[in-house]
Here is the input.
Amino acid sequence: MLIHIRNLWKTYDMGQAVQVQALRGLDLDIERGEYIAIMGPSGSGKSTLMNLIGCLDTPTEGTYELNGRTVSQLTDDELAYIRNKEIGFVFQTFNLLARATALHNVELPLIYNGTLASERKKKAAQAMAAVDLTDRAHHKPNELSGGQRQRVAIARALVNSPSIILADEPTGNLDSATGAEIMQLFNRLSKQGHTIILVTHEHDIAACAERSVHLRDGKIEKDERRAA
Amino acid sequence: MGKLQTPIWESIKISLASLRANKLRSILTLIGVIIGVMSIITMVSLISGFNKLVADQLATLGSTTFIVNKFGIILSDDDWFDAMKRKDLTLADYQAVVDGCSECEEVAVQKVSNRKVKYGREHFSRVPIVGITPNYMKVVALDDIVDKGQGRVITEFENDHRRQVVILGPELTEKFFPMLDPVGKKIRIGDVDFTVVGVPKKRGSFLGDNQDRFAAIPFTTYQKYFSNKSEPWEGLEFFIKAKDYPTMEKAQDQVRAVLRARRHVPYHAKDDFGMVSAETLMDLYKQVTTGISFTLVGIVSISLLVGGIVIMNIMLVSVTERTREIGVRKALGARRRSILLQFLIESVTLAVVGGTAGILLGVMLAKIISWTTPIPAAIEPWSIIAGLLVSTGVGVFFGVFPAAKAARLDPIEALRYE
Here is the structure.
C-alpha cells in the first residue's frame, strides 16, 4: 500500500469562532502504480486533500501513511524532505522559475537534496529525454510553448524518481490539443509504472485515469474503477 | 529520517543569479553601504595621516623641550583678549630664568617678525624673520642642518658680533637659487644684507604653518636691525630644554616660579604667560581629534544605518515579489534553512560588494585628497578590515528579518500568491 488514509479531518479556523471543515473523516487507499483522478466541485475538499497528500500541509485529525511512513504529524523540515523524495508536483500554472533554463528548473529538486552536480546534470538530462524535450534544455520558460513548459514541469516532477506524481489541473492552462498531448504523456508514464494522482474537475481528463474518486463535502462520494 | 543538504555553494549560486537578474536595483541598493564604508576609510585615513604628521612634528620639538611665551595656547576669543593684556617677556626675564632654573640645560630665545626677503629680482614679502640665540639649535631639532641640510648653524661668535648671517628656509632657497649652492650667497632682508650660511631640509607645513618659509638670524643681529617697539610680537619666546625627561616637570616648575615672582602674579591667579610642551600639544590635539572622531563615527553610523535599511527594504520587496518562487522551491523540497540562506546570502552579498566598492572608493578618495591638498592620508589596514566586517554585519543584521520572513512562508499560501 502506497497511500493509506484513515479518518482524515482538516478544519480551518477562519477567526471569530468560525470553522470550516474541509475534510470530514475521509478514508482513501492508493496502491503503487495506480493512475487515479480525484474529482469534485469547488469546495468539495479536493485542494485540501491534494495539499495533504502532497505533504504541503498536515491534517487536523486522522492518519496518513505514505510508503509505510506516518507523515501526518511531521515538522516543516521533515515534510520538506518527504516532498523532495516522494512527491513530484505538476501545477496548473507550471510554476517554473522564469529566470532559469529548462534544465536548471528540472535540476532544482536535486539541488535541494544535495545531489552532486555531475549526477544532477545526468539525471536532469534523462528526465528531459523522458518528456522528449532534450533539444529545449537550455531555453528559458518564456521561450517555450505552454505544452513544452508543462513537459518541463513534468520532467522536474520525475527527476527525483518520486513515489507519486501529483498533478493539480495539469491541463487547466492549456488548449485542448496540447492538453491531450500532456495527458498522453501521463498515460505513458503510468504504463511505465509511475503512480499518478490527477486532481481535476474535467471529466474527459479524469477519464484517462483507471480510477476516479469523487469528493463532496469533505467526504468520498464515489470511488469508481475502470478496467484498463 | 534523512536530512536534506543543500551545499552552501548552491545557495550562493542561486543568490548571485537573482542579484544579477536585478542589476540596476542591486547597484542602487548598494549606494548607502558604499557611501558609509567609503566615509569610514577616508575619515580614518585622513585622521591617522594627520595623527602621524602631528606626532612627527611634535617629535622634532622633543620630549624634554618646552616653550614659554606670552600667549600659550589660545582656544577662544577670551583667551586672546586676556593674553593681549599680558606683559611681554623681556631679556631680563630671560636672564632670571637662566639664573633661576637649575634643571634647565639650555634656555634659548627667539623673536619673530615678518619682513621682505630679496635676492636679485626674486623676492618674498612677509617672511617670518626669526632672531635666535645659537643654543636654539640645540633645543629645537634644527641642528639636523648639519647632517641632512646644507651648510652649518649660527655660531656663538656670530651672535656675539652681530654678524649678518642667515639660515634660510628651503622654500626661499629653492626660488632664489635653483640648482645652485645657496651657502655663501648674499640676500637682502628688509634693507640689510645677509650671507646664507645654512639651509635645513624641507619639513613641509604643519597645522597650516609653512615650516620651510623662514629666515633665522643671530638674536643680537635681530635686536640691532629689526627690533621695533610697535610690533605686537615684540615679546620674546623662550625655548627651554630640560636636562632629561624626569626633570622636565621640575624645570617647568622652576621657570614658572621665577616668572611669577618677577611678574608679580598673585598666589591664586593664573600664569600670565604660556608654557607649551610636546605633551601639552599632543593632549590638546587628542582632545580635539577625539571630538572629531566621535562626530565622524556618528555620521558614518547613520549612513550605514540608512544603507542597511535600504537593503532590508529591497529584500522585503524581493521576498514579496518572489513569494511564488519561494512556494515552488518549498514544494520541491527546500527546507526553511535553504530559503533563509538564499535570502541572507543575497543581502550579505549586496552589503559586501557595497563594502568592497566603498573601500576602493575610500582609498581612492583619501589618496586624491592627500595629493591635491596639504592634508595627509595614511590608509590603515585595520580600517579596511573594519569596513569589510561592518558591511558584512550590516548585510546579516538587516537581511535576517526579510530572510526569516521568506523562510517562514507557508508553501500553500505562497503557491497561491498572485
Q: What stands out?
A: The CA atoms of residues 92 and 173 of chain A lie 6 Å apart.
